[in-house]
Amino acid sequence: MMVVFLILLLGLVCAAQEAPAELDPTQITGDWHSVLTAADNKEKIEEGGPLRAYIRRLECNDTCSSIGIKFYVKFQDACLLLHSAAERKGEVYHVGYMGANFFELLPISDSALAIYGENFDGVKTTKVTQLLAKGDGVTQEEIQQYEELNKERGIPTENSEDLTETGKAKRTTGI
Known about the structure:
Blueprint: H1 2-16, H2 25-28, E1 30-31, E2 33-39, E3 54-60, E4 66-75, E5 78-89, E6 92-96, E7 100-109, E8 112-120, E9 125-133, H3 140-152, E10 160-162, E11 172-174
Parallel strand pairs: 5-11
Antiparallel strand pairs: 1-3, 2-9, 2-10, 3-4, 4-5, 5-6, 6-7, 7-8, 8-9
């Protein structure tokens, strides 16, 4: 009898949970620029760090089951333009870059998007976030929502980096 009760309870809990909102491809696809980044291991996102990336464009297919990502990284004083494709499994995207990466896209507004990801480099998992903007920048309210995301995910506020000053590529190489 206890097993039947537990199965019924589990069924009710699952039914009561809201289905995650589907991403709107028109809200995701477009030109973006990285504004802020944060990580629980700050060394990974500091200038010259392996996870310091400057996102420039996202291309979401019709169902957002895959996303094309165009971004810059700095390597030996040169900015490299990289293209990558991420595949969705459930609500999480998977992509290989500096290890295995799993990330979520979290729309904040029509012109701001947060990314929460986890990078496993073969030894350690690092939690990383980015705040992206379309257009000129982000509002203070959008920054507050981003900071709340970091707090919820255990990323200290002092581990945040402003990417707007260092996100200007001087020399670029496309890969």
